[in-house]
Amino acid sequence: MIRRLRTWAFLIVFYLGSVPFVLATPVTMRLSRGALLANVHGWCRFHRWCARWLLGITSRFEGAPPPGQYLFAAKHQAFYETFELALALVDPVIVLKQELMAIPLWGRAARRYGAIVVDREASAKALRAMMADAKAAKSAGRSVLIFPEGTRVPAGATPPLRSGFAGLYRAFDRPVVPIAIDSGVVWPKKGTKRAGVVTFRFGEPIPPGLSREAIEEQVHAAINALEG
To answer: What pTM value is reported for the model?
Structure first.
């Protein structure tokens, strides 16, 4: 009962408190990129505050993002890590599902912030667009964050990586930093949240230029290092 009440308190406070950040988005988009980034980081810190004080969930980082431009490949078990990694990586271009871009206002803001859209159907046109976006991010000097399993998965699940990851790896042509995350233990996809610590483990950079089989095998093992 207590966990259910805390979960509902989080949902009410976080989503109502998100309204000012959403309303500020069109304004900050027109002011400058710095203003937009400050608004995004403010929203992420608000999410962290709500998770900490309403749910009792905090983060522990093992290692840190290395300086420079990288392709960050992270485990994805909860909404939680999207906010935490947006802060930890400072200003990454994030690979997002096409469905999210259809959300009014939010989709436009995500595009302006910097997003690479991935189509689950993996059509040739969509793949070409993703490669072009990756090359644009590379030219801009920004790192890219991808959840290579394609969607949130329950704790303990280790599905194969989606095919788009290998294509992005080739197009971006930068080292990959895998990130293992165990958020699903305290933040299940469905149901109530529970207090605890979410671990973010940054792996050693993996060089570009490997075969698809080699890079997928190494990344899959590294992002699932906290499973089992």
So the answer is: 0.92
d(Cα 13, Cα 70) in Å, to the nearest integer?
A: 35
DSSP secondary structure code for residue 102 in this structure? G
Instruction: Give buried/exposed letters for 50-84 (b at 16+ CB in 10 A, else e).
Output: bbeebbebebeeeeebeeeebbbbbbbbbebbbbb
The owner of tokens 């194969």 is: 160
Residue partners of 204: CB distance under 8 A and separation at least 6 = 177
Give the model confidence (pLDDT) of 200-227 as tens digits. Answer: 999 999 999 999 999 999 999 999 999 8
Q: Are 150 and 75 in contact (CB under 8 A)?
A: no
- Return d(Cα 23, Cα 122) in angstroms, integer: 33
In angstroms, the CA 171 to CA 163 distance is 13
206 bridge partner residues? 176
Task: State the alpha helices, DSSP H only, in the chain.
Answer: 2-31, 33-50, 80-88, 106-113, 124-140, 163-172, 212-223
- Helix boundaries (H) for 141-204: 163-172
The amino acid that residue 207 corresponds to is: P
